[in-house]
Amino acid sequence: MFGVPYVYTQSKVLKARLEYLRDTFQIKENDFLTFDAMRHAAQCVGRALRGKTDYGIMCFADKRFARMDKKGKLPKWIQEQMGSDVLNLSTDECVQICKRFLRKMAQPFPREDQLGLSLLSSEQLQREETQSKIEHKIQKVEVAIN
């Protein structure tokens, strides 16, 4: 992502919204605009990941994303991937990290390695089904009592 996706601030609708937030909730214009920009950034990069088996590369190509006032407004799952070792990189460093990641992801990933982590084992599935049946019966009893 190149740049921070701030909205057009001269819009009359946005100015009215910012005035309302400032007067009603004491929210500063800059705080709202930054929060909104980070929400848009998170939605944009999050589109690459739609399921458990998806993977993608998020490149925030703007040094402002490394600042705590921006980074702190991103979702936790993104913040956790933004360690100091991957911030403020040159283009060449970013390309090398991406190549290394893609080579690693291209390797076969055996199903056995996923059991208990991203997939449930047969025993875990059985326990989940049993727990669900018990909870369903408890709800029926509670409804009957009331």
UniProtKB/TrEMBL annotation:
Residues 1-67 form the ATP-dependent helicase C-terminal domain. GO terms for biological process: nucleotide-excision repair; positive regulation of mitotic recombination; transcription by RNA polymerase II. Transmembrane segments: none annotated. GO terms for cellular component: nucleus. One of its GO terms (molecular function) is damaged DNA binding. This is ERCC2. It comes from Bugula neritina (Brown bryozoan).
